[in-house]
Amino acid sequence: MIVKTLNDVIGTEADVEARTWRSRRLLLARDGVGFSLHDTVLYAGTSTSMWYANHVEAVYCIDGRGELVDDETGERFAIEPGTLYVLDGHEHHTLHAHTDVRTVCVFNPPVTGREVHDENGAYPLLVEEDA
């Protein structure tokens, strides 16, 4: 059994911050559960372009408002509390945060916590043995 609180993660190496977002990574590959789980805040007034070429990501909005754009089709989706989106086709996408947008994100395969977005907005596929 694994029991953690958000406060257990804040200020550790699993608390990762970039220019447009902050991700508190509650479960990582080393936890051995087959997925990773993140509490992520995208900052108000920012736009973040991403592409998870090596992962499927599910994102559930729990606070804030924004807009998701499928960069491949141009489709736009309102993001607000209660909205779920899943990048099951490895879509290039941009999230425009109108307010701070707080989400719960699940990655499969799980991330190790060392990944950073590359020049394409993608995470490399790292495994825990690479540590």
Keywords:
Jelly Rolls; RmlC_Cupin_sf; mainly beta; 3% helix
Summarize the structure.
With 131 residues, this protein is mainly β. It contains 1 helix and 10 strands.
Description:
The structure is a single chain. The chain is mostly beta strands. It has one helix at residues 6-9; strands at 15-17, 21-27, 36-42, 47-51, 56-63, 66-70, 76-79, 84-86, 92-97, 101-108. The protein has one domain (6-113): Jelly Rolls (Sandwich), CATH 2.60.120. The strands form two sheets. The protein has a six-stranded antiparallel beta sheet, with no helix packed on it. A four-stranded antiparallel beta sheet has the order 4-9-6-7, with no helix packed on it. A hairpin with a 5-residue loop joins strand 6 and strand 7. It catalyses: (2S)-4-acetamido-2-aminobutanoate = L-ectoine + H2O.
Question: pLDDT under 50 segments (min length 5)?
Answer: none
Strand order of the largest sheet: 1-2-3-10-5-8
Put simply, the count of helices is: 1
The largest β sheet comes out as:
6 strands, antiparallel
User: Do you know the CATH architecture?
Assistant: Sandwich
The domain tally reads 1
What class, by secondary structure content? Answer: mainly beta
The coarse silhouette is globular
Class in CATH? Mainly Beta
Order of helix and strand elements from N to C terminus: HEEEEEEEEEE
Q: Helix content range of the residues, please?
A: under 10%
Mean pLDDT across residues: 91
Which strand-content bin applies to the residues? 35-45%
Task: Kindly provide the radius of gyration, computed on alpha-carbon positions and rounded to a whole number of angstroms.
Answer: 14 Å
| N-C termini distance | 24 Å
Pathway: Amine and polyamine biosynthesis; ectoine biosynthesis; L-ectoine from L-aspartate 4-semialdehyde: step 3/3
Catalytic activity: (2S)-4-acetamido-2-aminobutanoate = L-ectoine + H2O
Function: Catalyzes the circularization of gamma-N-acetyl-alpha,gamma-diaminobutyric acid (ADABA) to ectoine (1,4,5,6-tetrahydro-2-methyl-4-pyrimidine carboxylic acid), which is an excellent osmoprotectant.
GO molecular function: ectoine synthase activity
